[in-house]
Amino acid sequence: MPSTAENSKITNEASAMLLYEAPSGIAIFSFDGTYLNNPVKDFWADIPQLSLEEFIKSEKAPYPFDLANMSIDDNLTKSLTRLCGSETKLIVGSAQLKAIIENELGITCLCVDVPDCEVIQCSPKNHVGTLLAEEKSKMGKRDFDVEVLIKFLRQHDFDVKPEMVSESVAELARLLLDVKLCEMEHLKFLSILLKDFTVTSGIDTTNWRLFQFATVPKMICCPRSSYEIYPPRKIFSREEFRKIQANASGYKTHFSKIGALSVYEDVVSLYSKRCSLLLDLDCLVEDAKAPSMLLYEAPSGIAIFSFDGTSLDNSVKDFWANIPRLCLEEFIKCEKAPSPFDPANMSIGDNLAEILTRLCGSETKLIVGRGLHKAIIEEKLGITCLCVDVPDCEVIQCSPKNHVGTLLAEEKSKMGKRDFDVEVLIKFLRQHDFDVKPEMVSESVAELARLLLDVKLCEMEHLKFLCILLKDFIVTSGIDTTNWRLFQFATVPKMICCPQSSYEIYPPRKIFSREELRKIQANASRYKTHFSKIGALSVYEDVVSLYSKRCSLLLDLDCLVEDAKAPSMLLYEAPSGIAIFSFDGTSLDNSVKDFWANIPRLVSNPVIFFP
Questions:
Q1: How many whole angstroms separate alpha carbon 505 and alpha carbon 499?
Q2: Is the pTM of this model over 0.70?
Q3: 362-379 per-position pLDDT tens digit
Q4: Helices marked H in 247-364 — which ranges?
């Protein structure tokens, strides 16, 4: 950094001055005047190294320029006259200031408009965006331009539509714009102020945030200060931190003129306002979204979820393929009441009717999974319903056979009949790794297969409900459930609602990775009340019960199928006698000539020895 003597030499000989209106006052910098031999239009694109000569704080004096009377106050007049004289060029950022200074003081001025710059923010939305000129002009009006306001809000990750823009939303957006403009002014001033320091220190500030620029003067002028948010070691790399400390001593006097601590506090205050406004806007936008409800028949009761109705703007047929994030509002358990729908009389239970009326009103859309429910609710309650059939989903099981399979529609329709379809039954059993032939299918085998089908249908219903229930939790937690089993889905609500519970089979540490466990535990507190409505422990126990039934049925079927296999015998002349073996005769369905090439598993019977 130039010494005081060098500064005096520059000021008196080939120097030029820059008058800059900072957010907290008027700054006057000196710089090498030969720089102006380059085109003035490039001044802000490649700012020269600057030395701060004077800083007049706003809180100590009113604004020094009187634009109405085209005059300038005595304090700034003295400073400019002393620093500039009559021959030194002065750079200003406003044509009005140029006119006042030249007219009142006779100092030659060059006007170079200060361009807008990008404000890179550390905010809840962590948005990087450039303020558009049209936002300044149009959003300040009372009769705001909705299109421009929406563009501004979408820059901050708010998904808004014209019908969602109320006067309250517009007012908060205007306040947010004011904060953003102030942040831009601070960033421009700090970029200029720190130019010489960053060049001397060899620090690349290309990706720096406003907080980083504001922290450097505070670190240098107030090295023992504390930091409530963003301490230096968190926002600077080790190398940047080392360079700042190594070059600090030469700039302490330089930066102390601006009141480094007050500038930092201004930036913190703007950050707090920005966060508060973003949170308030988030609440208003969420409230403005068209609410919709989902009525879902879970295995243990009726669940009613709320969700953002704007998702229905997409094709309804894709609803289940891309389920929106849901919030459980009510759950009516089956053990406490029978099914609230009476198809015979086309009526609905009083409890469910009261809940739907309270939650839906007359304008809210209600998604249902059955045409019958749509007809009853619309006729009795006058609530508009959309019927979207709930598709079957794949049940990935932890079973002795560890089978992954999709239930076929024909299995549901044909296997329930007393005169079952043997071909469909065999296909179903082969899905579960049973190698059966038509002659092996007895009435007992068919009965066990029907029971296994019932269990599988129940497992599917539980899986569909748990996928829907956990959707918001999974998205928030960032967990990939692509390969999860039914047991994993059922375990999450139990872990959250009953953290001290024990597990007879499949404890969490056995079925989740360390990262999954960490994410579940980290987000558990937000969802405990949400999941407790369904009775998480009873849902888990239902899944365990189905698992036990499935295992038992598979073992019983295995015994029956083995017994049904046609036994065959092998007589073999051994060197010391005659050996007789039994084996599974179904292996003879293959070519007999391959018998010795692929000998079946043999069970030895008593050997007959010859003397």
A1: 16
A2: no
A3: 667 888 888 899 999 988
A4: 252-256, 260-288, 350-360
